[in-house]
Amino acid sequence: MGKKKKIILPHLPAGINVTDTHCHLDMISSGEDVHATVSRAVARGVAPIVTVGIDIESSKNAIRFAAQFDSVYATVGIHPHNVQELNDSSYVELEKLCRQPKVVAYGEIGLDYVKQYAPDDVQREHYARQVDLAKKMELPLVIHDREAHNDILHILKSRTPFPAGGVMHCFSGDWNLAIKVLDLGFFISIPGVVTFKKASAMQEVAQKVPLDKLLLETDAPFLAPEPLRGKKNIPEYILYTAKKIADLRDLSLEDLVRSTTKNALKVFNIPAADGF
Questions:
Q1: Which stretches within the chain are classed as H helix?
Q2: Per-residue exposure over 100-118, b if at least 16 CB sit within 10 Å of its own CB, e if not
Q3: Which CATH number do you get for residue 53?
Q4: Count of domains for the chain
Q5: DSSP string spanning 160-178?
Q6: Is the peptide bond before 221 cis (omega within 30 degrees of 0)?
Q7: Which residue segment(s) compose the domain that 71 sits in?
Q8: Which of 102, 120, 249, 269 could form a disulfide with 66 if both were Cys (CB 3.0 to 4.6 A apart)?
Q9: 275 occurs within a structural domain
């Protein structure tokens, strides 16, 4: 049998950082210490890291991790899979969570017409209500959209403008959809799926999105990029995604990373003075 091929992570020069704008540290931590995960990522130049809430408990965990690690920031929100748990008291609690230190966005929220863990009408009701809460709290939105493009955009357009902006997380549409998202003033975040051989539509989007509207994410522990597809994803693997997009755009890895991190600091209002 031949030797197993060694996988080499792309390397960033000292002083250059790439931001993972969307991961779930509380899910990554199963079987692996969060401190080790964050420390290893920072050592590789992956910082800041935005860890994302999908329900009340995970939102609290995100806030806890943000308090624990200088490089970590939090979002608060209820994923469409979990909206059936929401009631009026939930919204009171969510508003309180939004006021906690280092909460930089509201989400992930949205619509998922693939798995449909909640009825479509219930998803739409709470998606709209959470969009309104995000606007009230003056936080950027983090949107989840699976096979729900028209309803996602319709509800957003009915509530424009969005002074704090927003992010279309794990973008899964084509270039025509990307144009509509960009017209709202939102950023488009590209996951590790862009490294897959058959991801031609996403690769086209990654090539065409204006550089000042492009973000990178892992969605860890999901969607590990090539050459680690199928394994548990972690923040440091964002370097594979960054390298693929840099190649698609005929940019150096350093230039791509500088631009996307600048965008991340802008949309999440993270001070550059924090050292990243």
A1: 25-28, 34-43, 56-68, 88-98, 120-136, 149-157, 175-183, 200-208, 238-248, 253-267
A2: bebbbbbbbbbbbeeeeeb
A3: 3.20.20.140
A4: 1
A5: ---TT-EEETT--S-HHHH
A6: yes
A7: 18-268
A8: 102
A9: no
Could you tell me if residue 58 is inside a domain? yes
CA distance 241 to 134: 29
pLDDT in tens, 15-66: 899 999 999 999 987 667 899 999 999 999 999 999 999 999 999 999 999 9
Q: Is the pTM of this model over 0.90?
A: yes
C-beta separation of 226 from 238 below 8 A: no
pLDDT digits (tens, 9 = 90+) for 86-110: 999 999 999 999 999 999 999 999 9
**How far is it, in rounded angstroms, from Cα 1 to Cα 177?**
47
Instruction: Examine residue 35 and state whether it is found in any structural domain, yes or no.
Output: yes
The amino acid present at 195, given as its one-letter code, is T
Say if residues 179 and 129 touch (Cβ distance below 8 Å): no
Q: Which amino acid is at 94?
A: L
Whether residue 64 is contained in a domain is answered as: yes
